[in-house]
Design a protein that fits this description.
Strand order of the largest sheet: 1-4-5-9-8-7-6
Shape: rod-shaped
Order of helices and strands: HHHHHEEHEHEEHEEEHEHH
Radius of gyration: 44 Å
Number of strands: 9
Oligomer: single chain
Structural class: alpha+beta
Helix content: 40-55%
CATH architecture of the largest domain: 2-Layer Sandwich
CATH superfamily of the largest domain: Bira Bifunctional Protein, Domain 2
Strand content: 15-25%
Bound molecules: 3,4-dihydroxyphenylalanine
């Protein structure tokens, strides 16, 4: 009976040192396992004198039950402790709003570019392309821009080498197209152009759409009709349009095209500098000198050309007063379009 007393004491002491579930498993094996201390004592019963067996057996049984109960209790509380720790460390606040999926969208410049292209495509214009790194010949010479023309100024043109430039306009595509195709021609050439310039209305890179139509009897009235239709589709059919005499080396006669100020309706404001008009593009009848450069017979063909700046149109369309906003990639700005 002393041994049984010791057994219980030993169990209670060791139980007090259990720090976790692993310890408890070991303790359980040591006392109530098949080769544990309780079994060992059980085996001793048959060696006892018969009158002592019953008391020994029932006491051992009580101890056995006691051990099992203690183990189960401690196991439950240790498991609860582990669970509690997990709940704390793996805490998930399901009341928080989910992460919103952000959708990208077309850049406002590309939106206007696409819109403008679609209008010309609907009028039967083909879309042509040309290199952004261009030769002096295509960018200037073939367009009748003389060596001393201000557009060639070192401050305006990015020179790659003496004869290679970043194109300063999309007009060189006119030359490239006329060199490889014969009239009738009806093309637009959208793309990036480069000028060494930077302020609230100029960036070193911007976009233009060039237009060119050549056939046997193209007149200035065709130019007016095409551009008026384009402007009315883009800005609304009540937008006033005016052609103002101007000068470009590659067109003769040349014009600059204005629309009635969309901010003040023509009464005069800060944006239109009180004139009531906003300039949006340059145009004219193709200069015969340009036709000669590409080998077109000047007594056979006439044509018109035009060039418009996409950023300028986008700024007018969306009332944006600083061109640099387009290229800062600020999502707060871009997501408004
Ligand atoms: N290339 C001119 C520029 O960048 C724009 C231009 C004006 C293009 C008249 C034309 C045109 O085709 O006929 O300022």
């Amino acid at each position: 009976m002393d041994e049984l007393h010791e057994l219980k004491k030993a169990f209670q002491e060791e139980l007090g040192t259990v720090a976790g579930l692993e310890d408890l498993q070991k303790l359980k094996a040591k006392f109530s396992g098949r080769k544990g201390k309780v079994s060992a004592h059980l085996k001793k019963i048959s060696a006892l004198p018969p009158e002592k067996r019953s008391q020994f057996g029932s006491t051992l049984n009580e101890i056995k039950k006691f051990i099992e109960k203690e183990v189960i209790q401690l196991e439950a509380s240790l498991k609860a402790e582990v669970q509690q720790k997990r709940l704390q460390t793996e805490f998930l606040d399901i009341s928080l709003p989910g992460r919103r999926q952000l959708f990208g969208r077309e850049h406002p410049i590309n939106q206007v570019l696409t819109e403008a292209k679609d209008i010309f495509i609907s009028m039967g214009f083909d879309v042509e392309d040309g290199p952004e790194v261009e030769t002096d010949y295509y960018n200037f010479e073939a367009l009748n821009i003389p060596k001393d023309h201000p557009a060639r100024d070192m401050q305006d043109t990015f020179y790659v080498s003496e004869d290679i430039v970043l194109r300063t306009h999309t007009s060189p595509v006119q030359i490239r197209v006329m060199e490889k195709r014969t009239p009738p021609l009806r093309i637009i050439a959208p793309g990036k152009v480069y000028r060494c310039d930077a302020d609230i209305s100029h960036t070193a890179m911007f976009h233009q759409i060039e237009g060119l139509m050549v056939d046997t009897a193209i007149a200035f009235s065709d130019l007016k009709g095409v551009l008026e239709l384009f402007i009315h589709r883009l800005f609304g059919k009540d937008t006033p349009v005016r052609f103002r005499p101007s000068y470009f080396p590659f067109t003769e006669p040349s014009a600059e095209v204005d629309i009635g100020c969309i901010f003040c309706g023509g009464s005069g404001c800060r944006v239109c500098k009180t004139t009531g008009w906003l300039e949006i593009l340059g145009a004219g009848m193709v200069n015969p000198k340009v036709f000669e450069m590409v080998g077109y017979k000047i007594d056979q063909y006439t044509g018109f050309a035009f060039g418009l700046g996409i950023e300028r149109i986008a700024m007018l369309k969306y009332s944006i007063d600083d061109i640099r906003l387009f290229y800062e990639n600020d999502c707060r700005f871009l997501s408004q379009f």
